[in-house]
Specification:
This protein has nine helices and 17 strands. It is α/β, with parallel strands linked by helices. 47% of the residues are buried.
């Protein structure tokens, strides 16, 4: 008899905007770390344009990447499964890379993936082209723009090249744009420097506000400028009004979140995983700020719901536009290097070390670690069971979420 577990379910939500068969542009933003950006009040105000944009869309201010690193972020977004593999990344594992994806099931949509450089690292090309049939993958050699550095063409040029392709599409499209410039060597093209406010702060000011160097700070300003260039170009095109733009960080960056966040962010490393998530479609989505805890794994099921696509889904994400305020929303996170797994809930962060079995529950409200005894013990048991459940389910699904034969 078949003893395998079955996580598959059919998702079929008809949202009011689905009749429009909206296009999707999903921007995966390199190192877009929440506490370093403007939306939570960082005094260095690194992303003023994006901050204003979040007021015109549906902004999830408690989104987490399950793991750290670009390949693991792309994996979580594409598959809906946290990459809990201990060795390198799931994308590099030949036994894991065959995955059922929601993007593949967007019927009648053309599929596009734009990256400024090469998709040869971490077998990302294999993950994408192997699981999304008919995907058009655009890499450095496909563009007329000049290379900027090791990551290929500049993000500004990448956005403009993508826009040039998307404006020519005559049927609905699902496009992903993966940025890279908010990453060492933090190159800003000379032609763009006049349009970016380059600033210089003392080491003390930088460190107090979560930055190490002025180069890193100015890379955030450049990132903000590239979003502006892209959306101002897109706004002039016919596709704009019928497109849902999604912006999400691929991961955060560990560091000092200072007084902007509960101490848990800095002390327990939540800075590493906390990223902005914005759904922007001014003619379709009413602006809102949503505080519930969500994850990168929720993006694809949410897009399927917004577009009314009936999909078969075996991942762990959910439609985060659902009105379910009574539920305790949570985000699972994993740090394979240290052996930690954890869960961010409405009010707590639970952390468990798989190697040492050490565990702790930390209040997100007052930073305290909960003491032993009731009611903490029953909360601890509940969170431990849920966290280990997420971990084991993810481990199982990495091997058992194979795409259907067409």
């Amino acid at each position: 008899s078949d003893t395998s577990l079955n996580f598959e379910r059919v998702l079929n939500v008809k949202d009011s905007i689905a009749v429009r068969r909206p296009n999707i542009v999903l921007v995966i933003c390199e190192s877009f770390s929440a506490y370093k950006s403007s939306m939570w009040g960082n005094p260095l105000n690194t992303t003023p344009y994006f901050n204003e944009l979040t007021k015109k869309g549906v902004f999830f201010d408690n989104c987490f990447s399950p793991a750290y690193g670009t390949a693991k972020g792309i994996w979580a977004i594409m598959t809906g499964i946290p990459d809990v593999s201990d060795v390198k990344t799931a994308s590099r594992n030949i036994r894991m890379v065959d995955q059922q994806t929601i993007m593949n099931q967007f019927d009648g949509y053309s599929k596009h993936y734009f990256i400024g450089g090469s998709a040869s690292w971490a077998n990302i090309r294999g993950l994408l082209t192997g699981n999304v049939s008919g995907l058009k993958l655009y890499e450095e050699e496909d563009y007329s723009s000049p290379s900027l550095n090791v990551w290929g063409i500049s993000d500004k040029d990448l956005f403009l090249e993508a826009n040039a392709v998307l404006k020519q599409q005559d049927k609905p499209f699902f496009a992903i744009i993966q940025t890279a410039d908010n990453h060492r060597p933090y190159t800003i093209p000379d032609e763009d420097k006049p349009f970016v406010t380059l600033r210089s702060f003392s080491k003390d000011s930088l460190e107090k506000n979560g930055f190490w160097t002025n180069e890193e700070l100015n890379a955030y300003a450049y990132m903000d400028y590239t979003y502006k260039v892209f959306l101002e170009a897109a706004e002039k095109e016919k596709y704009f009004d019928n497109t849902i733009f999604v912006f999400v960080g691929d991961h955060g960056i560990r560091g000092n979140a200072g007084d902007l966040f509960p101490k848990v962010w800095t002390d327990q490393g939540l800075t590493c995983q906390h990223v902005p998530l914005l759904f922007y479609a001014p003619s379709m989505l009413q602006p809102a700020v949503v505080n519930k805890k969500v994850s990168q794994i929720d993006i694809m099921p949410t897009l399927a719901a917004l577009c009314g696509e009936e999909v078969t889904y075996g991942g762990l994400g959910k439609n985060i536009f659902e009105k379910d305020s009574a539920k305790d929303h949570h985000a699972f996170i994993v740090d394979s290097d240290l052996g930690n797994i954890g869960l961010v809930t409405n009010n707590y962060f639970f952390k468990y070390n798989r190697k040492t079995k050490e565990e702790g529950v930390y209040s997100l409200l007052n930073n305290e670690q909960l003491k032993k005894g009731e009611p903490a013990d029953s909360l601890l048991n509940q969170l431990r069971n849920l966290t280990i459940g997420y971990y084991e389910a993810s481990r199982y699904l990495l091997f058992n979420n194979k795409k259907k034969k067409q």
